[in-house]
């Protein structure tokens, strides 16, 4: 594995318990509209679903409650996989879980899934092209791929005094490291065009791009806050984006 994946794997193993159920369907992201409002997923009854970056398994549990026939998940972190296994088993499900990076071949079946989704995990990949090509290969033709991640503008703006100031670069497409919950991690900034164009190259048609803040946050008075995921910020720019694509 490359050094970034190795570092992120150790850090996610160490952080796993603190993320138990924190970003899971029907939630797509902080202060973003939920699946209950967006209805991006097809009817899951009898469907085979795969979660990329499944974390603690809470999104897979939601799919199970919606009637999905098979629950499959993949995650870089061994600890997340073991948490997901326990959580889903306790809830009466029999998931098939793979401990692997999304950008590498890991033996998942080809042209098998009706729906592949990823809630706040795609941006962790070190190789977006390989991740999308792998995901395309797991889907049946006509299958749906839905994912959410931080909006690319988020890493370009800072709060200075009580203003959002464009202080970064939207153009630079580079990896950066920081400390998350006490652990060193590395992620990469990407432009929106990188996601759209890599989807096209992998054989997807993009059906929806959601760049919204939830209506509750937009309708109330938000006090000033410099927080990264604050309502004040969310009233000025979407914190997350969500894409629904279909494999040709
Ligand atoms: C914010 S959490 C997602 C939580 C999850 N969606 C849920 O429903 O609980 C991000 C997840 O991505 C995983 N991850 C990070 N890099 C990855 C990679 N390259 N391949 C697969 N999973 C990765 C992490 O281990 C972590 O579980």
UniProtKB/TrEMBL annotation:
Name this polypeptide is given: Methyltransferase type 11
Looking up CDD domains in the UniProt record yields: AdoMet_MTases
Q: Can you tell which superkingdom this protein's organism belongs to?
A: Bacteria
- State the organism of origin: Eisenbergiella tayi
Record's keyword annotation contains Repeat: no
Any idea which GO molecular function terms this record carries? Answer: methyltransferase activity
Do you know which PANTHER family this protein is assigned to? Answer: TRANS-ACONITATE 2-METHYLTRANSFERASE, TRANS-ACONITATE 2-METHYLTRANSFERASE-RELATED
What does the UniProt keyword field contain?
Answer: Methyltransferase, Transferase
